[in-house]
Design goal:
Elements: E1 11-15, E2 18-21, H1 22-33, H2 42-64, H3 78-89, H4 97-108, E3 115-123, H5 126-137, H6 142-149, E4 160-165, H7 171-177, E5 189-191, E6 194-204, H8 211-242, E7 244-246, H9 258-262
Antiparallel strand pairs: 1-2, 1-7, 3-4, 3-6, 5-6
Length: 263
């Protein structure tokens, strides 16, 4: 790691010769974690410093290449960072069709576990769960009961949870859900956040996977991987271009991030 003497103690780094102050970074750490910056672990703070310096690197490289920054806000949100990366390094390459075909063929040989399409009510206690179940069993609309009684985050939309694979949930919940036929309601089940009343909307039995879904999933995973690798390579190149200097003696934590390794 590069350490400079005679630098103001309020500076934590230099990016392309521009000073990066400690105060704004501490504010950033607090905003991202929701904790006082002093309480955040060195490992997490190191990772956040990498992210913070990445943005400084991208912005400095854009300045040097005369990219028009008129539409870029002071705080630089993720979409603005991505726009600058596209301007500086171009879009990520597309995944190889051969790699996709090989992975789709591999996954096509796997057996898809049974899946259940589920929605829930989340209640404070067992008694409330029984009251909700009684109303549902009497024919009341699930969404309306959810809006009135449930405290799930999406209660107003009916407590939709989507599909779950059998074996992918805590055993006590997995057993309850996969014992239900489509349309049936569960007895109140205790969980970490309260009591759940589940309804299974659809059950897809175990069997070969849907090739359309497999290919769509593989393409998504491969594309995300290509984007991550492209961004990492782009930022590494830009950091080498603009030069990053860390003043580790000014830091309040042992920095073990990427910029320590690269210098």
């Amino acid at each position: 790691m590069t350490v400079s003497c005679g630098v103001d103690q309020n500076a934590l780094a230099s990016v392309g010769g521009r000073r990066v102050d400690i105060g704004p970074f501490q504010t950033y750490v607090g905003a991202v974690t929701g904790e006082a910056w002093q309480a955040v672990s060195a490992r997490v703070t190191s990772r956040l410093l990498d992210q913070y310096l990445d943005r400084k690197v991208v912005l400095e490289a854009a300045r040097r290449r005369d990219v028009n920054l008129a539409a870029i806000s002071t705080e630089m949100g993720p979409s603005e960072v991505q726009w600058l990366l596209d301007e500086l390094c171009g879009p990520a390459p597309e995944p190889s069709e051969d790699e996709i075909s090989i992975e789709v063929a591999r996954k096509a040989e796997e057996t898809q576990p049974a899946r259940a399409h589920v929605r829930q009510l989340l209640l404070d206690n067992h008694e409330q769960g029984l009251q909700a179940l009684q109303r549902l069993s009497a024919g009341e609309d699930f969404v309306e009961v959810s809006r009135q009684l449930s405290r799930a985050p999406n209660a107003s939309d009916g407590g939709e949870l989507g599909f779950f694979d059998q074996g992918g949930l805590p055993p006590e919940i997995d057993e309850v859900i996969f014992s239900l036929a489509p349309g049936e309601f569960s007895e109140p089940v205790q969980g970490p956040s309260g009591y759940h009343v589940f309804q299974v909307l659809e059950v897809v039995p175990e069997g070969p996977p849907d090739l359309f879904e497999v290919e769509a999933g593989v393409r998504t995973v491969f594309a995300q991987k290509m984007v991550r690798e492209h961004i990492q390579a782009c930022i590494r190149g830009l950091a080498s271009e603009v030069e990053v200097e860390i003043y580790d003696k000014h830091l309040w934590f042992p920095y073990t991030g990427r910029y320590a390794e690269e210098q």
